[in-house]
Amino acid sequence: MVKRAFETSRAYSDSKLGELRTSLADVVPKDEIVLTCGSFARREASQNSDIDFFVISQETSGAQEWVGTVEERISSIVGVAPADGGAFANVESMNAMVSNIGGSNDDNPNITRRMLFLLEGEWLFNKEGLQDLRRKILERYIQDSMTDHQLSLFLLNDVIRYYRTVAVDYEFKTVEADNPKPWGIRNIKLVFSRKLLYASGLFSVAMTVDRARDEKVGRLLDLFDMPVIDRMINICGKRQMEPVLDSYDYFLGRMADPSVRERLSNLKPNERKDPLFRDLKNEGHNFTRELLKLFENTFDSTHPIRRAVLF
After folding, report:
1. In angstroms, rounded to a whole number, what is the distance separating the alpha carbons of residues 218 and 196?
2. What is the pLDDT of residues 246-294, one digit of tens each?
3. What is the dihedral of CA 214, 217, 223, 226, to 10 degrees?
């Protein structure tokens, strides 16, 4: 039997995560957190993947000395570290992760770190600390006053806000920025991996209906502790997920090919008719249709999530 692309990616990702955890075990102070987001956290990495990681510290002012060693060790195992000035470039304080949700201080890097921490964050150091912080953030979203029948709308709105922010920022980063980012590969990732992550957030929030407050938090903790594909299978079932997985597997297989990544990275915005881009874009349309079918088959017309995502 031919091994599917996501199975190969999972094996590679798990192997590298094991190396990273071992490498950082004697570097990071015990109460600090180092985590990764992106393809390694989702178990979708290949040898061509870089790694996004960030540090969550008790006190950001005293963390810089050991953070440099963390960056060196991660780079020696995986390769490319986060870009300077990006959402993963700075040390984040634990307090900041549970405060400033909404309002003028909740800028794009802040919401990006918070939502990726919740939806796909995977520990590199201090698993228990990461899980405890995730609980605190969820308890901030899901207040004691919430009634059983309610969805976790505060969280749902932030999941939607994050995804729409990524979609809007894509235009700026690939067109208007002083140093535009590669257009083609970001477009395809937006169609596949960003969309699946978003769907996993919507589907997870849908599972909070008709549960007591603590059960809502507990269910989300269980779901967010899983890689995105596992989370979707847990909610929908493996059989229902097969059409989505088939389409997503095609995307992962293509992304594992260095020549495909290079070609997409070098495309210009006026090269939308490129055969490789069109092939992946057309599969992306199919992927979106299958996700919509999955949503409709998992949550019937009376489910509160149907209204909540529209109004």
Report:
1. 22
2. 999 999 999 999 999 999 999 988 899 999 999 999 999 999 999 999 9
3. -110
Taken in order of first residue, the domains within the chain and their CATH numbers are 1-141 (3.30.460), 146-311 (no CATH)
- Give Cβ neighbours of residue 153 (< 8 Å, ≥ 6 apart): 308
Strand 122-125 with 52-57, pairing: unpaired
Residue 192's nearest CA partner among 165, 221, 228 is: 228
**Which residues touch 170 (CB under 8 Å, ≥6 apart)?**
186, 187, 190
What is the CB-side half-sphere exposure of residue 172 using CA atoms within 13 A? 6
CB 134 within 8 A of CB 204: no
- Integer Cα distance of 160 and 235 in angstroms: 19
Q: Is pLDDT at 178 greater than 80 in this prediction? A: no
In terms of Cα–Cα distance, which of 266, 291, 288 is closest to 277?
266
Closest CA to 228 of 196, 190, 202: 196
Longest dimension (CA), the chain: 54
Average pLDDT, the chain: 91
Q: What mean pLDDT comes out for the span 227-234? A: 97
> Given this model, what pLDDT does residue 83 score?
52
